[in-house]
Structure formats: C-alpha cells, structure tokens
Amino acid sequence: MKQGDLVTRKSYGGDIVFKIQEIRQQQAVLRGVELRLLADAPLPDLEPMPQLDPFQYLGLIRPKWLDAMRRTNASQSQASPNAGDSSTAPGAAPKSRPTYFDVPGKVLHLDGDPVYLRKCMVLYGELRVPAEGFYVTEAHMADALYRLLPQIQPDIVVVTGHDGLLKHRSRGDITSLSSYKNSHNFVNAVHAARQYEKNRDALTIIAGACQSHFEALLQAGANYASSPARVLIHALDPLCIAAKVAFTPIRDTVNIVDVIGLTHSGLEGLGGIESRGSYRRGVPKIQHANQT
C-alpha cells in the first residue's frame, strides 16, 4: 500500500472508505472519502479498495437534498415578491410588472481537503450559489480569513475539513479542545471571522467537521456547527446549509430543523442558532444587448 490508496479498516468492519494521506513506519494517516474524518491505523489493519479517483468516488454519492434544493432555488428566483399587490387605479390600463433579478448570498468556503473542495464547488455551481473556494489546511484557516474576508466580502463563510476526537485523550474528556484534532483551529478561524464582522445576520458562519466541539464553535461565534453528538458528518453537509442560507430571503430566518433535516447526519451531526437568510431581489432586470 502507498500514499493515495483507498482503503477500509478491518477492525471496524470496513464501514468507512479512507484515502491514505501519509505512511509513518507501519502506521497510516487516513482521510475519509465521504466523511470528514481524520484517523490512523496500522498497515496490517487496512483492506485495499477499488482505486478510483476520490473525486469520482464522492461523485457517485448524490445527496438526497440536491434536487429538492435546486428546485427550491429556481422557484425562489421566479417568484414575484409582490404577486398580491395591485397599484393600478380603477379604469386605468394595467401596468406590466417589472422583471426582478436575484442576488443569492455569496459563500467563502475554506476546506482542509482538496477533493471535498472540488466537489463542493461543482455543487455550488449546480445550485447557482455564488461561491469562492480555497484549499487551506485547518491550522492556517484563521490567517487565511484575515486576508480573504476583506477581499471577497462574503455573506456566508464555511470553515471545514477534517477533525475527530483524539484516541489518546483523557478518558471521557470531550469538553476540552485539546481532546480534538482540529476543533481548536476551527475555533480560531471563527474568532477571526467574527473580528471582521460581529453581526451574526450580516455574516453567517458554518464551522466544523466530524466530531468537532460543537459548543466551543457556537461560543466562538458560529451560526451553525458540528457535531452536537460528536458523530461523523458527511463531506457535503456544510455545503447543504450554506446553500439554504444563500437562498433564504433576508427578511426570513432559516428554519433550523428543516435545513439540518436535509443533511446526511441530521441533528446529531449539526446544530445552530436562529439566523437570517442572505437572499435579495433587485429590479429592474437588464438585458444587455450584444455590441457589434
């Protein structure tokens, strides 16, 4: 076996597919292909899998919420905000209604896994969510946000990658950040984002990965975070929430239970606080003619 191979762990019944990130003597550092999990295992415990490109492997899994959210986003754009209004005086000719244009919330997505990032950017495009994505290791996310936030000026920030409870933590101690592989890095990133924008409705922050310290991330200023029950979350769960926020009107709050119910891991994997959406409409919609 070598770096980059796809494997499962025999001791766990082959329940999760991993990519070998690094081999240290007889120990492999593993990154989940579907789940945002960082783990390690002895080489004899590993079982080889068909060696697909991890991006292709992730592409085989179609989120259950994708088609429904695409339809919702499309209908949101087509609906008129004043469908019930009538400003035409009695006896006057009816006025034609203006054509609106939509402005979904803009997403800045920092991901500690380049394969997950590639897949997320494809799906943002399918859902018509304006997004800029950057592969940034978890330890450097706070520094990256200091630089990127003033430049991109997003409405929504996603900071995610890999995390997990440390195998050799103090027994039963899940309240300390030192018991997690990357939760402290995500907390630092959330702090950096909140220094840029303190208003939780002006900047929605979605933070965390598998088994992340949910309470610490919310206390740092995240609107949504993983993982309340310290469970594994799917690679695309943070994107699901970001896309929903991007197409929820600014006058409305996002239905927390509904949006988290769309995700793979549900309320055990993700939670949050009541927050407004980022979607706006504008008028008039201008058709730019081709210049010859």
Element layout with pairings:
Layout: E1 6-9, E2 18-24, E3 27-32, E4 38-42, E5 46-48, H1 54-59, H2 66-78, E6 101-103, E7 107-111, H3 114-126, E8 131-135, H4 141-152, E9 156-160, H5 183-196, E10 204-207, H6 214-220, E11 224-225, H7 237-246, H8 256-262, H9 266-269, E12 271-272, E13 280-282
Parallel strand pairs: 7-8, 7-9, 9-10, 10-11
Antiparallel strand pairs: 1-2, 1-5, 2-3, 3-4, 6-13, 11-12
Helix pairs in contact: 4-5
Protein name: Sporulation peptidase YabG
Pfam families: Peptidase_U57
Organism: Paenibacillus naphthalenovorans
What does this structure look like?
Helix content is 29%, strand content 18%. It is α/β, with parallel strands linked by helices and 292 residues long. It folds into 2 domains: 6-52; 62-76 and 101-281, Response regulator (Rossmann fold), CATH 3.40.50. Strands 8-7-9-10-11-12 form a 6-stranded mixed beta sheet, with helices on both faces. Strand 9, helix 5 and strand 10 form a beta-alpha-beta unit. The longest helix has 14 residues, at 183-196. The mean pLDDT is 86. InterPro entries: Peptidase_U57.
